[in-house]
Amino acid sequence: MRESFVSIQDLTLKYQQKSVLKNLNWTINTGEQYVLFGESGSGKTSLAKIIAGLQSAIGEVKINFSNESDLPAEVLFVESWYQFKNLEGVANFYYQQRYTSQQAKDTLTVHAELVSYGKEKGLHLDQVEHILEALNFSSFASSQLIELSSGEHKKLQLVKALWLKPQLLIIDQPYTGLDAASRRNLNILLDEVAESGVQLILISNDTELPNSVNRFAEIKDGKISVSDSRVVTSVSAEKHLKEIPDFLKESPVYSSQDIVKMVDVNIIYGEKQVLKNINWEVKAGEKWLLQGHNGSGKSTLLSLVNGDHPQSYANELYLFGNRRGSGESIWDIKQHIGLISPEFHWYFDASATVWQSIASGFYDTVGLFQQLPYSKSQQVDELVAYFGLTENKNELLISLPLGKQRLVLLARTIIKNPELLILDEPCQGLDQQQTQHFNQLVDELCSNGMTLIYVGHFESQLPTCIEKRILLEKGEVKAVENLNIEILS
Amino acid sequence: MSNYFNTLPLREKLNQLGVCDFMESNEFLDGVSALKGKKLVIVGCGAQGLNQGLNLRDSGLDVSYTLRKEAIEGKRDSWKNATENNFKVGTYEELIPTADVVINLTPDKQHTAVVNAIMPLMKDGATLLYSHGFNIVEEGMQIRKDLTVIMVAPKCPGSEVRAEYVRGFGVPTLIAVHPENDPQGKGLAQAKAYAVGTGGHRAGVLKSSFVAEVKSDLMGEQTILCGLLQTGSILSFDKMVEKGIDAGYASKLVQYGVEVITEALKQGGITAMVDRLSNVAKIKAFEISEELKDIMRPLFQKHQDDIMSGEFSRIMMEDWANGDKNLLAWRAETGETAFEKTPAGDVKIGEQEYFDNYLLMVAFVRAGVELAFETMVQAGIKPESAYYESLHETPLIANTIARKKLFEMNRVISDTAEYGCYLFDQACKPLLADFMKKVDTDLVGKNFNEGKDGGVDNRKLIDVNEAIRSHEVEQIGATLRKAMTAMKAIKTA
Fold it and tell me: By CA distance, what is A83's nearest residue in B?
């Protein structure tokens, strides 16, 4: 009989009267490499936190660390949410901050962060080099933490975990925000650490997994069921039954047919060129896919469109028919746009309720600062119901599971039925069914003439309405092409 | 140059001290139009300069920066801040003559030199904007009669000014027009437009005067904001160590305690702060804060008197002329205190524990806020101004202590505030010597409720609640806080 490494007995967790985990039992034997999956809100993250000792619950969790192993006898839980602080210990950042150039350095560099982590954990810097290379992250050594995109922050968390090699490594959503090449290399690295004795629990609904994974645990109705292969719960292909609210069926009225026009746009910080001679035009009603590796300049490009980049003013850029810097305010621009991105979610106001978060989309603010007129508050209620969030509407956004938070912010993105939708990896944290439903909704909104710019790393999970693609590589336009979605999938 | 305030007849002194009007949001319906198409030139590109400029430009205004030749040629940080964010940068000679509004965001100490350099270059009928009135009021700077002189002062650090703007809100802001320099009567309209441009109108704008701003700002920063927090922190730390409390614990309690305690103050005034205590503890905190008020009242009054008479500015400017001898000596001393030298211990202190084990600081804060407020109001400053310069700013200063202790606080605040802080601290410590002898660890370091049954006399509790809640700072605070509810909490570990 194999020795059990983790043994969980009668674990029960309640969240606000609702049972999340119900007398859950789970035994993980030495050498078993797990993937933990389940619907959004099923309790995956809570369970992981309990195993890592970061959250308490009723029941028993025993971990038998090995005394013979060279690896540190600890559980490391890599959250899908990353947190960093500035040099003064404050985490009060805003999502546009990384585009502003400021000489007073607020945060550590990646290198300094790694040095301090290595010191804390007693690790050698020479052992991190090949991990940095494999994840294509070496060039970020001198970047400040505030300058990193969500995908890059994800990589930093992964680098630290793979470097530490704890006896039990739990990673929540290891692949979100990573491009295809990084996902493949991550799997190779995970196989390497598994080989050296690390036990893995990967929380993921993805299908491209490391070869070392040999067990699958599904969490459903508060209990775990284990198998040797993934039980494919068939995703119902049925059409979304609910009809979208009427106010979202109205076609947008465009003041100009030119939504975006960039002429030889360059973005430079000191010596570093992030965007180079970009030329791009988006016409009213077009549906674009924006692609490129992590760090290719996608978010910077979108920040120009959303009025968030300070260097917009020195570039030849036209938005909604007007030259940027001709006396418009950023709020004049934002009123045409519904935007979501991982960074936007990350920096969103933690003190807002679900209802307020959605309502704030009318004013493009992070948090709601004004009284809504009756007609608008009706629309918020309709959309809350449409997304199935009615029972959560007065809860704090931050108290919901990440997938639900994301749904709320997606509702916020479309609440004003904007002319232009900018969806930067909108479905991060959603399960497959939710992703499919959301993409159907996007298709439906776009059929009324809405303009779309969509960023997605997972090519199987895109709305079908997409008809054009712009591909960035190292800050330059690699390709602009018409495309048929079938080519991709 | 002579002190402007002292040249005024009493009637006019009272008149200017009493300018105070909390503006309604419908007074800002014109948006930025009074500044639309005008050339705004900012002098200096530090934290306030850069962040205000970013906001103004994002509000559709034409912003550029002017720096001293040496800063441009040496490619100093201020030059990099401005150019890398694609602002136009030029020397005084290049940009000032074209400016419709010149915004002076340099430190107090440089104001005389800066204004003397730019004034001859300014075009006829232009506007000069300050964010602090010291130069005009205390130094008596005379501005050319054709120029309009206004003030717009966001009541937060530069980084917050930007952070709140981009999320669609703003920070509370004070505006003023100098009555000696408003030849065309456009000052107020421009000040309001500037407040809209930086986002301040969403969080509440207080119309004040140069005189009221300076006299209340100096008073607040010297007494409750920096002076008392410094004195109270050092006395608390030393007392705990003297009584055998672990130094690491004491250091952590003092470093973070004031921030946790004043977070309650920020959200619900003194009432909310003392309501975090048990009934027995609240009565105790009330009693010792009454005692503290009696002890410190003469000192608060002396500070207010010296500020009103110009005596404070006179001695501080003497120190400026003396190469900041006193200031630098005091700053070095603060860096050497036992509190500063003892790192916060690796112990967990729960949020409620900061109240229960640090009752002395709750008493200090209540005494200091009420005394500063009362003394200002007695001196002719209006309650709204007094509120901003006492209660409102206390949590912001507490936040700097939580970051890196008193040395950090003194680094972040202006040199003027730092100078006043030391004057207060030196006079206050001896005053409190007898009081501190009686203080034991039940007031600081250990849970006051320990070993008590929690019973109180109904009548007494009602009286204490009544005294705290009916204080004028609570009445005015309730009104002003309504406008600021959306301000994001500043959180630290």
Answer: B493
Q: What is the dihedral of CA B120, B79, B81, B33, to 10 degrees?
A: 30
Put simply, the answer to whether B50 touches A369 (Cβ < 8 Å) is no
Q: Please indicate whether, in this complex, the C-beta atoms of B84 and A369 are within 8 angstroms of each other.
A: no
CB–CB contact A90 B491 (8 Å):
yes
Give the burial class of B467: count Cβ atoms within 10 A of its Cβ; 0-12 exposed, 13-18 middle, 19 or more buried.
exposed
Q: What is the per-residue burial (b if ≥16 Cβ within 10 Å, else e) of B233-254?
A: bbbbbbbbbeeebebebbbbbb
Report phi then psi at A67, rounded to 5.
Answer: -80, -25
> Would you say B381 and B211 are in contact if contact means Cβ atoms under 8 Å apart?
no
Which candidate, B460, B483, B468, places its Cα nearest to that of B270?
A: B468
What whole-number distance in Å separates Cα of residue B128 and Cα of residue B102?
A: 5
Task: Provide the CB-side half-sphere exposure for B345 (13 A, CA).
Answer: 13
Q: Which residues contact B174 (CB under 8 A, 6 or more apart)?
A: B151, B152, B153, B155, B205, B206, B207, B208, B213, B388
Q: Which amino acid does the sequence have at B353?
A: E
Does residue A479 sit in helix, strand or coil?
A: strand
Packed helices B77-84 and B47-58: angle between N→C axes, nearest 10 degrees: 10
* Chain A CA closest to residue B202: A369
Other CB atoms within 10 A of residue B454 CB:
9
Alpha-carbon distance B404 to nearest alpha carbon in chain A (angstroms): 7
pLDDT (tens place) for every residue of chain A, 489 residues total: 456 899 999 999 987 778 889 999 999 999 999 999 988 778 898 999 999 998 888 999 999 998 888 899 999 999 887 666 555 555 556 777 777 777 666 678 889 889 989 998 899 988 999 999 988 888 888 888 877 877 888 899 999 999 999 999 999 989 888 888 888 999 999 999 999 999 999 998 888 899 999 999 999 999 999 988 876 555 554 555 688 899 999 999 898 999 999 999 999 987 889 999 999 999 999 999 999 988 889 999 999 999 999 999 999 999 999 999 999 999 999 999 999 998 888 888 877 899 999 999 999 998 888 889 999 999 999 999 999 999 999 999 888 888 888 899 999 999 999 999 999 989 887 877 888 888 998 999 999 999 999 998 777 688 999 999 999 999 999 999 998 655 554
Is some CB atom of chain B closer than 8 A to the CB atom of A316?
no
**In chain B, positions 109-168, which contact chain A (CB-CB < 8 Å)?**
160, 162-163, 166-168
Question: At A274, which helix (H) or strand (E)?
Answer: strand A272-283
Q: Compute how many other C-beta atoms are within 10 angstroms of the C-beta atom of residue B423.
A: 20
CA torsion sign, A271 to A273 to A277 to A282? Answer: negative
Q: What are phi and psi of A455, to 5 degrees?
A: -115, 125
Query: Which residues have CB under 8 Å from B287's CB, separation 6+?
Result: none
In angstroms, the CA B401 to CA B429 distance is 19
Q: Exposure pattern of A456-476 as b/e (b: 16+ CB <10 Å)? A: bbbeebbbebbbbbbbbeebe
How close does chain A come to B220, measured CA to CA in Å?
A: 25
Picking from A90, A310, A369, the nearest residue to B492 by CB comes out as A90
CB contact under 8 A, B169 and A369: yes
User: CA–CA separation, A70 vs B342, rounded Å?
Assistant: 36
ipTM computed for the complex: 0.84
- Out of B86, B167, B490, name the one closest to residue A365 (CB): B167
Q: Check A311 against B488: CB less than 8 A apart.
A: no
When CB atoms are compared, the residue of B166, B403, B488 closest to A88 is B403
Residue B471 appears among annotated catalytic residues: no
| Closest listed residue to residue A148, CA positions, set A110, A118, A191 | A110
**Residue A408 and residue A389 in contact, taking contact as beta carbons nearer than 8 Å:** yes
| pTM passes above 0.90 | no
